[in-house]
Amino acid sequence: MRWQSAAFIAAAGAGAGILLLGRKLSEGAVNPAAAQQESVRPPAVLKVRALGPGRVTLTRTPDSARPGRYALEWGEDGHAVVGGILASDAAGVTRRLERADAGTLAVGTELRMTPRVLLGDPTSALAMDFAETTAVGELGPLPAWLTPGVRGTWVILVHGPGAGREQALPALPTLASLRLPTLTVTYRGDEGAPASPDGLSHFGETEWRDVEAALRLALDSGAGRVVLYGWSLGATMALQTAARSDWRDKIAGLVLDSPVLDPSASIRRDAVRSGVPAALAELGALAAQGRTGVDLAGFARLASGADLTVPTLLLHSPADASAPYEAAAALAHHRQELVSLHPVPDAEHAALWNADPDAYAEALRRFLTPLL
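Above: the chain's sequence. Below: its structure in token form.
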């Protein structure tokens, strides 16, 4: 029996190791602090090769060669903004340097490319008036930005994991041009908002109730109807709210930017992107499901559009390496009478505005105008 005991101990040890590994791999998906760290400070993978008046040459990577408008970030606070590609060859990519906000950009600087073109709040980033307000959620106060407008339809903007309210800043000028009041909200796990009781994110399955709290605030503040507008899991929360809220009859439409419709696939994709072998990525997805108790059948129903009742603008990239485009295309196909699918080629997850700001704003304007 001694060898059987040794084998049992070895198997138990291996099982415990697998559980610990799965838990570690799932952290970025279920831990708000880990998601924030991964989003704001991804690894520095680019280097400045040359600088000139209004131009910067970067090492060539898929990121540096993407069309559109992006931020360069380095060190603790270095931040610059680059626009279109001026020249490109095997050695490097030269882009228009629009501005350098902080830090010193020099040849040899190691940096990362991010979607965070706009930083701060609506006033510091866009010279727009806004007020700090608070929605009252079931766990406590939820800070929000309120921008004024004259329409009876309000827009509630819900950021994705790790991004914070700054993610909504690029959309605000278009919404202001339509004279729409906006609430840019927070939810459990955000900085300044209450933590989830177990400290974990739940793929929108509990967080949607904080979006509902913002919906109540808008209605109590004079809104007649509301458009929910979200990015990534924020888009998923918008879908959840439209399907489950007691006030869903007040929702006039949805804007879904890169929605996560298959959380398991997204976790696996994110893990593989970070260099994790596919088999271990599957382990991380299973661990995330187990830790959060996510209802995969409920997610499948949500992704099918079975409960969708309002016009929906679905913006997604076929090149999205996190949330599968196929799930978005299937939703649009199943509910084509309500869903307008706007593909954005060669864009990163939840960075569709960056890829083509003008076309993005025009798609948003055309969708919202009939809902005013």
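Residues 1-22 have pLDDT under 50 and may be disordered.
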